[in-house]
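Input protein
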Amino acid sequence: MATTADFRNGLCIEFNKDLYMIVEFQHVKPGKGPAFVRTKLKNLKTGRVIPNTFTSGVKIDVARVERRPYQFLYKDENGYNFMHTETFEQVSIEEAIINAPQFLKEGQGVEIVFHADTETPLSCELPAFVELEVTYSEPGVKGDTATNALKPAKVETGANINIPLFVNVGDKIKVDTRVGGYHERVR
């Protein structure tokens, strides 16, 4: 059992018979009335983010979760297959709990969050940035760079993203997996 004083970003709690992760929280002490904590909670099964307010000092059940390093192997009809980087144990998970499956390539390192009591995978998180090669894009037109113009491109994983005009086929780019867009060109 924990209280609202123990809240921190990333803390997993049991709330309404489900597992939630605290995405954001704020202690509020109004001039009149009791203090409270305003939170944004992410459901670990559905991925939905909901706002909730807790009265200050209320008891909360904390869920034990473990973050383990895994490496992506391949995708088949059962889902995405990963291997633990230390024990070489393999696990298959569905696409719904992966934060950016379109940017997964073979050998990519990820972090899978497991519920410690039931050993079920809750979420799979790619690194914030991944390096991918551009496999197809239209050539940029000379003189078309007066603004921050973007063109569609396909990367080696098959995902489509928008890139600046100066990036060409064969260039390696850094992609932000949190927003699903171009970040910078890798030299």
Summary: The chain has a mean pLDDT of 89.
